[in-house]
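WARN retry 2 of 3 for item q-0093 after timeout on previous attempt; input resubmitted unchanged.
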Amino acid sequence: MINPVHLRTLVEVIRLGSFAAAAARLGYTASAVSQQMSALERDTGVTLFQRAARSIQPTEAAVVMTRHAAKVLTDIETLMAAASRAQESPSQELRLGIFPSLATYVLPPILQNPAWKKLGIDLRVSVAEPAQTIQGLRTGGELDVALVYQVGQSGLAWPHTVDRQWIGDDDFRVVLPAAWGIGTDSKVAAPHLSDMPWIMHHPGTSDATVIERLFASCNLHPRVVAYSDDFHASLEMAAAGLGAALVPELALRHRPADVVVLDVPEIRLARNVFALLLNEKRTAQVQLFVELLAETMHRLGTARQD
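OK item q-0093 returned
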């Protein structure tokens, strides 16, 4: 059996005219090239070189073998490329439900990541709040994966037939109008914010209930001037001086210039982000996508801290 590596070395020796030149081209030593040519002669039973003290002379058999070797090596490369393509996983359609801030700030960097293109996923995206995307999983036909968040122990529920995988945490921060004159480094306790106007979640939602309980535990009783579940709208209203707001860090990636972000020690709250996966759709490709999502969210969080 002829070793293709030896054939490739033979082609280079004939093309360059010496063992030393072929060795330099292929990254071998001249001695290694000589040993390969001797092995090729043994395997074929053909004398390929007339050797002298300081030179080699290829035989006619070596020249003929080189002409055929070029075609053989090309065929081998074609075979390996075809086998590699056959081994690759076929494209998989993934119907993804995702909430707005994750779709706005985390999904685009994933789609621009070279690792994404290697996954072979044909993505179909539905942007909606968690309660709606979970309904897509319940119906068993609209979605394959739902990316959702849960604030505290809020009443978000999902089917027992899905697997839940934690992606990361999206911490809430207190946002004030810059016109109020409170600097980012100011030490502000939660009760001191009670007399200020606030933009709050619509009452009755699970998120609003959790936030109301947290504020009450901090002796913070907000004077509500607006209700908004749209963080972009809340930020713009805060920038215009209407009131303070509690906004998750993902939504702060493109915050207006006229707001100040405060760290209030008593107010510690986060959106816990999860991927809900249907068991029958949990392929290796989907799992790699979920891991890429978690990695991207972690990287964005690190960048915010820096």
